[in-house]
Amino acid sequence: VLQSAEVMKNAVAYLEPHMEKTDEAGKGTIVLATVRGDVHDIGKNLVDIILSNNGYNVVNLGIKQPVSAILDAAAEHRADVIGMSGLLVKSTVIMKENLEELNQRGLAADYPVILGGAALTRAYVEQDLHELYAGEVRYARDAFEGLRLMDALIGIKRGVPGAKLPDLKQRRVPTRTSAVTEDTVEEGTVRSDVAVDNPVPTPPFWGTRVIKGIGLKDYASWLDEGALFKGQWGLKQARTGTGPSYEELAETEGRPRLR
Ligand code: B12
């Protein structure tokens, strides 16, 4: 797929000087990046090829891009749109943080955002993130949906008659037909004598809370030494059974380093 897309890109580059230019300002600019901590870029590069073959100016920043780099490039290239890609589940959280950063910097109105990558779902982007972001944010399942969104966003920005974004998709919540259960017992059945009227305790609070000011010493004691020493730092006795045991390694290397 990438090779055929590259062929197309080269062919378009060859033809470009002979094509009629319709708009001096170009069709529009998108800054494209794989988000911080994520190395997957095959999909993003396909998006680059499809968009640039269709006349857009694509500033492809590459992988593992922090939000500051994305925003610097967007300002430098006067981007119309920002496109972020990520395939790891943790990238979906980074994307959320990036949108929060855009909100905080007061840039949401300037930059519509298109998000793509297999870890995302349409509902997460078009419902949860859309609610959070003060600008426009849309999900692209593939490069072609990205192209359609780009056409719509640029069309709206330039006041093209009829240009509009597709409707947002809402998460489907299963509807209960009836929450009321009838208190009748069918003939021939024995009703369980398990009590159903137990009081339901009320939790001290709902949702999450951030507690600050806990001393390092207090939570360091909860650290899983085994996971840290063996799993992360690789302190293990040699397979041959020779050399110091794990417990010795923990005492001579692990704990001093931790301290
Ligand atoms: C290839 C691959 C790799 C390659 C990446 C090479 C590269 N240059 O990209 C390598 C081997 C380096 C790799 C590494 C890792 N990978 Co990997 N990788 C994959 C794999 C097999 C395919 C991804 C891919 O390229 N798909 C093809 C492209 C074309 O599709 P796409 O990216 O989804 O893009 C399309 C759309 O999503 C959309 N799109 C995407 N982005 C954007 C952006 C915009 C703006 C738009 C409009 C559209 C759009 O358009 C694209 C084209 O239509 C997937 C599994 C899978 N089948 O998806 C795992 C997968 C993504 N990897 C995974 C993991 C865990 C890792 C590692 C952490 C493994 C490890 N322990 O080291 C590391 C990542 C390290 C890191 N920090 O990022 C997991 C992620 C799990 C999770 N849910 O978090 C997956 C799902 C495999 C699995 N089932 O466990 N990986």
Task: Characterise this structure.
It is built from nine helices and five strands. It is α/β, with parallel strands linked by helices and 259 residues long. It has two domains: 156 residues, Rossmann fold; 43 residues, no CATH class. A five-stranded parallel β-sheet has the order 2-1-3-4-5, sandwiched between helices. Helix 1 packs parallel to helix 2 and helix 2 crosses helix 6. The longest helix is centred in the middle third of the chain and has 16 residues. It is extended and about 75 Å long. The protein starts with a helix and ends with a helix. The mean pLDDT is 89. The structure holds cobalamin (B12). Cobalamin binds next to helix 2, strand 3, strand 4 and helix 6.
Mean pLDDT: 89
Give the SSE string: HEHEHEHEHEHHHH
Q: Based on the coordinates given, report the CATH architecture of the largest domain.
A: 3-Layer(aba) Sandwich
Number of domains: 2
Bound molecules: cobalamin
| Text of the CATH class of the largest domain | Alpha Beta
Radius of gyration: 27 Å
Low-pLDDT segments, ≥5 res = none
Largest sheet: 5 strands, parallel
Beta-strand percentage?
A: 5-15%
Number of helical runs?
Answer: 9
What is the approximate shape? extended
Q: Can you say what the CATH homologous superfamily of the largest domain is?
A: Cobalamin-binding domain
